[in-house]
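Box 4.2: Ligand-aware structure prediction
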Amino acid sequence: MKNLNRRNFLKTAAIGISAGALGTTSVKAADKTLSEDRVGILVDTDVCVGCRHCEWACRTAHNLPSSDLESYSDISVFKEYRRPDCTSLTVLNEFKNEKNPLLPIYVKLQCMHCEKPACVSACIVGALSKREDGSVVWDDDKCIGCRYCMVACQFQIPTYDYNKSIDPHIWKCDLCSERRKSGQLPACIDICPNEALLFGKRSDVLRIAKDRIRRKPDVYIDYIYGEDEIGGTSWMYIAGKSFDKLKMPPLGTDTAPGISEAIQHGIFSYFVPPVALFALLGTLMWVNKHRKIDSGENSENTYPDKEENKL
Ligand code: SF4
Ligand code: SF4
Ligand code: SF4
């Protein structure tokens, strides 16, 4: 296969995506077919060097507590396994590389932006939605803080900001939807110095992943994590060792409506008649929204100004 120039590929992808599917109406994944042009990201763990620049860029782009980039060269954080939380929407973890002990394997974690997201199915007020471009996004105005999404997600990704229990806030990777509106790449991908993250159409990314595996069978196992897991995910991974040894959950290919349906079924069947429930939820949403307006909080945009977002 003809080699793609990465910068050209990324530039084309960013322009195409900003002009295409992004910004279209949000859809429930189970209800409609996703755009053929929906995005995908390849994490090539063989070329990730564990610099943690992606962690810094993500925090900076989302106005989360951070410090200077140099401080991210601290590798002592790898002593413990970490998960994304409300202070860091993406984190790296380090694993032993039996083939080359001097070069550990680093695996980046964030929301996988599932093709059929269980969190979206579980959210009874539509605060989480799957966009046609493939991203799964959270709506501050609608969220009532029930945390069903946290229970439903098989990757255990959405995190709750317990310091904001009066004003519920669910944190997870949003695929940098604000940056992409202006044609920018997601911050973590933009900053990656070693081309370990590749962003484009999911179908193109998948083809490139297969090509890398085919060309380097001694480097990669013949498996793309995320191609089919629970119906497929937007983020996909290739690696030199099996993914269960990299702590990626061993999920089947079936979508995961079971948990989210069970949550909703439990509510509707055993606790509250639907009309009463929606009346209650509507009241909670109204109160929540007006509380934010009264406090002067900008409920439309939780991101800093674009100028401040520049890396
Ligand atoms: S990884 Fe979890 S939070 Fe992200 S889309 Fe999938 S179910 Fe939702
Ligand atoms: S906390 Fe509840 S309302 Fe908010 S996004 Fe999660 S499931 Fe939806
Ligand atoms: S795509 Fe954006 S929100 Fe998601 S991990 Fe990367 S920088 Fe963070």
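In the box above, the bound molecule is iron/sulfur cluster. Strands lie at 26-27, 39-44, 91-95, 105-109, 128-131, 136-138, 159-160, 170-171, 197-201, 235-238.
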